[in-house]
Design goal:
- The structure is a single chain.
- With 223 residues, the protein is α/β, with parallel strands linked by helices.
- The chain contains nine helices and eight strands.
- A hairpin with a 2-residue loop joins strand 3 and strand 4.
- Helix 2 packs across helix 4.
- The two termini are 13 Å apart.
Length: 223
């Protein structure tokens, strides 16, 4: 029987990097669901689709094909046959992803895709509504968070390291806006599942955060 680990939490909590490392240590497949929403945001951005026009975004879905492949232990996402793993991390695509994720048709489009990935293999899946909507019966549910300023500093350092010209203030403002969007949307808002374990990494470094989550996973999954 496969084991599903659902990790939810706000932007910049380190979900992707921590989940990826935990999957590597445990021999699980890591699935970054946020990357899927980013792909849709990227398609809309690059093709002139107004993301504030729900009907246009819904119509665009019929022109989108997604795929996820694991190469050397790393997840690569493909949009219409092209590897867009790097391009989807641009700041403007982050906001586009946040907006399209509030559209019911987009969430429905990706729901079965995500469930199919978890049905046949041990996975660690992170996002905003994994434990509450996508995998409500996951064996392990974790709500990963940290203080907003700490999350913004982590995201700022990550963007600067990649050569992006951003300020800490702009990153913090963007993070707060995305938190608001994610937590107040009508469809599948970001919240801690009733049976999820709260993991606060405000005072933890990366390795300590990974150790914390692996301990939770092993205990809950009986590994």
């Amino acid at each position: 029987m496969s084991i599903a680990v659902a990790i939810d939490g706000p932007v910049g909590a380190g979900k992707s990097s921590i989940a990826k490392e935990c999957a590597k240590r445990l021999g699980f497949i890591y699935v970054d669901t946020g990357a899927l929403y980013r792909c849709i945001g990227l398609f809309c951005d690059r093709n002139g689709v107004n993301i504030d026009d729900t009907s246009r975004v819904e119509a665009a879905l019929s022109h989108i094909t997604l795929d996820v492949k694991i190469k050397n232990g790393t997840q690569h996402v493909y949009l219409n046959g092209y590897d867009v793993s790097e391009e989807i991390r641009l700041p403007e695509i982050s906001m586009a992803a946040s907006k399209v994720s509030a559209i019911p048709a987009v969430r429905e489009y990706l729901l079965q895709f995500q469930r199919d990935m978890a049905a046949s293999q041990n996975v660690i899946m992170d996002g905003r509504d994994i434990g509450t909507v996508v995998l409500p019966n996951a064996e392990v549910k974790i709500y990963l968070t940290a203080d907003a300023e700490v999350r913004a500093k982590r995201r700022y350092d990550e963007l600067i390291a990649k050569g992006n010209n951003v300020t800490f203030e702009s990153v913090l403002a963007d993070l707060n806006q995305r938190d608001h969007n994610d937590m107040t949307r009508e469809i599948a808002p970001l919240k801690q599942a009733d049976d999820a374990v709260l993991a606060d990494t405000t005072k933890l470094d990366f390795d300590s955060s990974c150790d914390l989550l692996i301990g939770i996973i092993k205990e809950k999954a009986g590994l």
